[in-house]
Amino acid sequence: MALWVAVTGTCVFGEGCAAPTLPIPPPTALVSSPDASGFVTVSGMASADAYIFVLDEERQAGIIGHADLTGNYSLRIQAAIGETITVWQMIGSQAGEQAHVMVR
How far apart are CA 1 and CA 24, in angstroms? Predict the structure, then answer.
């Protein structure tokens, strides 16, 4: 019994057993070349039903979309060659890590 208390005492009385929250990975992001209207399509896979944020950092403009139940998403945003597109997902109230892709 003493060994069980010694081994589990930290978990029962301390905060050492709280599992760390894993970061939400960035969605995959493929960016098309600009079309004749100056828009690119950003598409990829994310967590199912997540909100997807796409930001053109140089233009300081963005769009918010939604992944479908399988995690697929596709969004259009105005961008030019050489600009950086930042993409991340939000699940509930947790924002995920960012992916940065240059328009080519």
Answer: 40
